[in-house]
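Annotated sample (chain length 59).
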Amino acid sequence: MVLEIRGAIKRTLLMLPEHVEEIQNLRREDEQVEKADLDEQKLEEIEFALQRLRATTYQ
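Output written by the structure step:
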């Protein structure tokens, strides 16, 4: 990761500011995760698991 960042910094020195900004925008878009569509049953399973975790954590 550090080498990737160092390489990116080196390359940005040779780029126009507009290009750097566009690359940063593209990276942000790539990092975004779409929300999953959960049905009622899946939501209930998650809620049950959270309740069970809370019960075991606070004992």
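Annotation: The chain is about 75% helix and 0% strand.
Annotation: The CA atoms of residues 17 and 23 lie 10 Å apart.
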